[in-house]
Amino acid sequence: MSDSIIQRLRFIIAIMKRKTITNKTATPKRYHWSANLLKSIEDPECKIREDDKIVVIKDKYPKAQFHYLVLPKEDILNIWHVKKEHQDLLTYMHDIACDLIKDQTDLEFFMGYHAMPSMQRLHLHVISTDFNSPCLKNKYHWNSFTTPFFLHSQDVCRQLRIDGEIKKISRELCTDYLNTKLKCHKCSTPAKNMPDLKRHLLTHISKCKP
Ligand code: AMP
Ligand code: ZN
Q1: Measured from the CA of 119, which atom of ligand 1 is nearest?
Q2: pLDDT at 4
Q3: Residue 43 and residue 1: Cα distance in Å, rounded?
Q4: Which of 67, 94, 123, 141 is labelled catalytic?
Q5: Which of 76, 72, 84, 75 lies closest to 166, judged by CA?
Q6: 57, 69, 75, 178: which sits with the fewest CB atoms below 10 Å from its CB?
């Protein structure tokens, strides 16, 4: 099989697994599964913080010990619908994320956006880097947080401030990132498969404990 066919197949498989929102203009119907975050931000059981600009919820399928989502109240479909005028809002969401984790001094966190989000309404992931969770199941989950598929909030805010826009990433590049070979995000040790990687990740956690 030629490289281009293999590339194409990988692309199709990754897209099927992520069930990404592809629609660029219309907001998908609220009853679609991709609208479930909109239900969660209205559910008092899910909300952990709210003000006039944002809502913070716990991720329903956390991929680490701590995994929150910060969503704006403004109906912005996803990161690719963010405009220069949203710069203050994204900075505000970043500040909320920093405040959320300020007491977790013994943990490290990533804060950022998926380049190909699956759920509607812009959401900032705030996730501890232990990645110790039964919900972290496959290579796509892993690579979505540990490769350039994950757009770090600080970079996004900087790009908006300096360039007035967020640098686009092609779908092909997204697929390549999701298909990256498994390796530890802390020490780059390669892993054969997810169980192997998860065993390795535990060694970093135990090193942190007194
Ligand atoms: P993304 O790939 O950036 O669109 O990530 C969507 C996130 O939403 C994932 O981390 C899911 O675990 C999470 N999620 C899915 N459904 C819900 C829900 N109903 N409430 C809260 N979080 C959810
Ligand atoms: Zn490691």
Answers
A1: 4
A2: 57
A3: 49
A4: 123
A5: 84
A6: 75
The model carries a pTM of 0.88
Q: Looking at ligand 1, which atom is closest to the CA of residue 113?
A: 3
Q: Are 15 and 175 in contact (CB under 8 A)?
A: yes
Q: In this predicted structure, what is the pLDDT of residue 175?
A: 98
Q: What average pLDDT does this structure show over 23-31?
A: 52
Q: Which pLDDT band, with edges at 50, 70 and 90, does 8 fall under? A: low
Q: Active-site residue 123, yes or no?
A: yes
Yes or no: say if 180 and 190 are a contact pair by the CB < 8 Å rule: no
* CATH architecture of the region 33-180: 2-Layer Sandwich (3.30)
Amino acid at 4: S
Every domain of the chain and the residues it spans? 33-180
Going by the DSSP 8-state scheme, the letter that residue 81 receives in this structure is: G
